[in-house]
Amino acid sequence: MSNFVDYVKIHCKSGHGGAGSAHLRREKYIPKGGPDGGDGGRGGHVIMRGNAQEWTLLPLRYTRHIKAERGENGAKSQLTGADGADIYIDVPIGTIAKNEEGEIIGEILEDKQEITLMLGGKGGKGNEHFKSSTNQTPRYAQSGMDGEEGFVVFELKILADVGLVGFPNAGKSTLLASVSAAKPKIANYAFTTLTPNLGIVDYRNYKSFVMADIPGIIEGAAEGKGLGHRFLRHIERNSILLFLIPADSESHFQEFKILENELTEYNPELLDKDFIVSISKADLLDDELKKEISSEFPENRKPLFFSGVTGEGLVELKDAIWKKLHG
C-alpha cells in the first residue's frame, strides 16, 4: 500500500497535559501563605488542515509518526504551564481521515479547514483548587491527562472535473499528456499508472478544466480484484466521466459495458453522472471502421473518436467536455 500516494497510514500522538503544581507559598513575611500551585498546560492537539496547494498525499508518504508537544507543568505563584504546541498535518482538499476501525473522523472540503484528529491531554489542576475550610494547605495536585494515540488512515479521493475511465492501455495517459502539461508515465503494459495524475487542460479564451488520469481498472475490480477499490474510489469525486475504449479493442461496446458494470457494482450513483464515451487511438482507424464501431453503440451513447498521438478529434473532445461541464 505504500506505493499509492492516495493512501497514507500514520501513527499519531497528541501531547500529554502538564502536571499541576503542589507548591506552598513560603515568603519571609508570609510564613503560612498557603497553596499557590498553578495548573498544567494542555497537551498539543493533532490537527488535519486543508491545503489547496497540495494535490496528493505524497509529502506524507514517508511519515511514520507524528507527535504533538506535551503541556508544561504548572509553577508557583499560580503560574499556569504553557500549552503544548499543536501539530498540523496539511492535506489536499478531498482527504478523508479514518481511525483504525475504519470509522471516518473527518473530511477536508475546503482550503484551511481544520479537523482535530486527536485532542491533547488536559492539564492537571494546581493545589490552590483543593483548598477548603478543612484543608488549608493541600500538598497535592493533579497529574496531567494523557494524550491520545493511534493510527490514522488518510485517503484522498481526487477532485477533478473530468475523470478518465478505461482498462489499462486504453490511452488515458497519452490523452492527458497531449491536452495538458502533465507528464504521466506511458508504457504498453497493465497498470502503468499506479497513482492518479492530474492535468490542467487549456480551453478556449483562457478557460481551463482539470482532468484526472485514473489508474486502469479491470473486470472484477468492484470485488476487489487487481487493484480494485483503491482505483474506483478516485472516480467518485469527478464531475463527469470520460470512458476511453481503445480502437484496437476486440469488442468496443462490450468493453464499455464491462466498465459501466464495474462502476455500477461499486456505486450505482456513479452512473448518475454525466459521461462521454470515446474511442482512443483513432489514428488506427479509417472512416469505414469508425462507422462500423459507432454502429455498435445506441444513439445516446455514440462515441467520439480521437487520437492523443496525432491530435485528431481533440478539439471536438474538449468542446464536448466543456459543454457537459457548463451546458
Question: Mean of the pLDDT scores?
Answer: 82
Unreliable spans are 1-5, 184-194, 225-229
Terminal CA distance:
39 Å
By CATH, the topology of the largest domain is: Rossmann fold
**What is the count of distinct domains?**
2
Specify the oligomeric state.
Answer: single chain
- Major sheet characteristics: 6 strands, mixed
Summarize the helices and strands and which ones pair or pack.
Elements: E1 7-13, E2 24-27, E3 30-35, E4 46-50, E5 65-67, E6 87-91, E7 95-98, E8 104-107, E9 114-118, E10 149-156, E11 162-165, H1 172-179, E12 197-202, E13 208-213, H2 228-235, E14 240-246, H3 252-266, E15 274-280, H4 287-295, E16 304-305, H5 314-326
Can you describe what's shown?
It is found in: Cytoplasm. Monomer. This is GTPase Obg. Residues 2-159 form the Obg domain. The protein is 16% helix and 25% strand. It contains five helices and 16 strands. It has helices at residues 172-179, 228-235, 252-266, 287-295, 314-326, and strands at 7-13, 24-27, 30-35, 46-50, 65-67, 87-91, 95-98, 104-107, 114-118, 149-156, 162-165, 197-202, 208-213, 240-246, 274-280, 304-305. The longest helix is centred in the last third of the chain and has 15 residues, at 252-266. The radius of gyration is 29 Å and the shape is rod-shaped. The two termini are 39 Å apart. The relative contact order is 0.14.
